[in-house]
Write a structure and sequence with these properties.
The protein is mainly beta. The protein is 14% helix and 38% strand.
Length: 101
């Protein structure tokens, strides 16, 4: 259950930022890792997180709750001794016309 809470909090933190690319990215391709134990379905009373293997070193995530469903490409990044998820919403991709100049 603690892992689900941590994953939920990381997902929320990943969803809050906008689509502005970083000038100094947090990680590079060589920091990507793939852990088999993340694959599968994680759920609680109200939501489900279904991780499957994507192409290369990323996961496909389908998040479902009582009201909606969202799909993500997810990278798992190892920085030092810690792991971080990087979520990319598949359906709500940012466009060149996001109101940014």
């Amino acid at each position: 259950m603690k892992k689900l809470i941590v994953v939920s909090m990381l997902a929320l933190a990943a969803l809050l930022p906008s689509c502005i690319p970083s000038l100094h990215p947090l990680y590079s391709e060589d920091k990507l890792v793939f852990r088999e134990e993340i694959l599968g379905e994680w759920q609680n009373d109200k939501e489900t997180w279904a991780f499957s293997k994507g192409e290369g070193a990323y996961y496909k995530l389908v998040f479902s709750d009582e009201d909606e469903q969202a799909e993500f490409n997810v990278h798992l990044v190892r920085l030092g001794e810690h792991y971080f998820f990087d979520f990319y919403n598949i359906k709500n991709r940012c466009s060149d016309d996001d109101g940014l100049s």
